[in-house]
Design goal:
Low-confidence stretches: none
Order of helices and strands: HHHHHHHHHHEEHHHHH
Distance between the termini: 51 Å
Helix content: over 70%
Structural class: mainly alpha
Oligomer: single chain
Length: 404
């Protein structure tokens, strides 16, 4: 008889757990359905698409030069050299042909014999870096030596890219459009999180909702639904905006440009440094990597918005707090850099807002802005971990605080 009672109790518990699971799933889809019915959020995404369209189409120029490079790439391949110059010389006489020959004739591999130790010493001297930051920079550039040798062996810097238009093209895509896409995705994520956290207060239904049996635990289903919506909104923004960019520029084979091409560099305190990624990236694969890490950043900002919404009863006040904290991060980095306090500067760089700001240098050595290889990936993972902990603490506080 005791065995029968235990079996009946176990079966009852399983049935109760199954019913609770379906109830939570129902709440999740209900919250997601409510989000999909918010026209203001849809309008925000559409306005972002419209802005990105104007942003992309308004920055397109030099199409004739791009077409000239694309034509020679199709005939002679992407690596500069004697054969490339011969094929370029056979083109019909034009200003674009003269321009391309001037850009590519006599090109040499700039990574062959490149001295990373000299770069490290120049950077340490220019920025007047001391202490552990100087030691970390030296170790980082020592690790870059093997990467430089690998790129030199396959002639990565000899990739013609888009010749003299490469910097213009890469800046338009990576330094401008990608940064805008990430900012829009982050803002959409924060707005989504704050809306879900405070929907009951805005509609004056919080007393009814939070006094039910499920009660305040509904915030978990809200968080999951909002996360799915924020990720979908970011994905839609990224895909549509990149398609608009591709249609506006008509790059063809230029999408296969090696990111280590000698036509793409960045500047630090008057030093011209090659863009050396830690892995083999072409333009298209680098774009995919940037948008993928950008997704992690969107998740981080969604969680931060959720935490702010759980801790602060007023949605506008929560948004203002997040805005002020982001501005303070910028200010701290600016003051530390101007004062030459590089230890504090490097610590501040591990924040989500500074990670977004440095996006054009992701997956490279990043100059003074990183002390370890792949710092942006490590920082992104650490931010997600810490934000997850903050969210757990936020739930605990929300379950106990006075909501009146």
């Amino acid at each position: 008889m005791g065995t029968g009672i235990r079996f009946w109790s176990k079966k009852r518990r399983q049935k109760k757990m199954s019913g609770r699971k379906w109830f939570c799933c129902g709440l999740f889809w209900w919250e997601l359905k409510k989000l999909c019915g918010i026209r203001a959020l849809h309008l925000f995404v559409l306005l972002c698409i419209g802005f990105n369209t104007l942003f992309v189409t308004g920055s397109v120029y030099g199409e004739d030069k791009i077409a000239c490079v694309r034509q020679v790439r199709d005939l002679a391949g992407s690596r500069m050299g004697a054969d490339f110059s011969r094929q370029a010389a056979r083109l019909k006489d034009s200003k674009q042909k003269v321009w391309l020959l001037q850009q590519t004739q006599g090109a040499r591999d700039l990574l062959d014999g490149y001295d990373t130790g000299r770069t490290a010493q120049q950077m340490i001297g220019q920025y007047r870096v001391k202490g552990w930051v100087a030691d970390a920079l030296e170790r980082k550039y020592q690790r870059q030596e093997s990467r430089i040798r690998a790129l030199a062996r396959r002639g990565a810097s000899m990739d013609v890219g888009a010749a003299g238009m490469t910097t213009v093209l890469f800046d338009a895509l990576f330094a401008k459009l990608c940064r805008v896409i990430l900012a829009e995705g982050m803002l959409a994520a924060v707005l989504t999180a704050l809306y879900l956290c405070h929907k009951e207060h805005m509609e004056r239904t919080w007393q009814i909702v939070y006094t039910t049996k499920h009660g305040r635990q509904i915030q978990r289903e809200k968080s999951c639904a909002g996360l799915l919506y924020a990720v979908a909104a970011y994905g839609f923004l990224a895909v549509v905006s990149c398609l608009i960019f591709a249609n506006a520029w008509q790059l063809g084979g230029i999408w296969d440009t090696d990111m280590a091409t000698q036509f793409y560099n960045f500047y630090a305190m008057g030093m011209k440094l090659p863009f050396v990624p830690w892995a083999d990236f072409q333009m298209r694969s680098y774009l995919a990597a940037v948008l993928t890490l950008g997704l992690a950043l969107v998740v981080v900002f969604y969680i931060l918005g959720n935490v702010a919404g759980l801790l602060v009863n007023n949605g506008y006040a929560a948004f203002l707090i997040l805005l002020v904290l982001a501005a303070l991060r910028f200010e701290a980095a600016l003051l530390a850099g101007n004062a030459g306090n590089w230890a504090i500067y490097e610590v501040v760089l591990w924040s989500p807002v500074m990670l977004w700001w440095l996006q054009p240098l992701w997956f490279s050595d990043m100059g003074i802005h990183a002390v370890i290889p792949w710092q942006e990936c490590v920082a992104g993972a650490l931010c997600i971990l810490l934000c997850g902990l903050l969210l757990a603490l936020g739930y605990r506080h929300f379950y106990r605080k006075d909501l009146a």
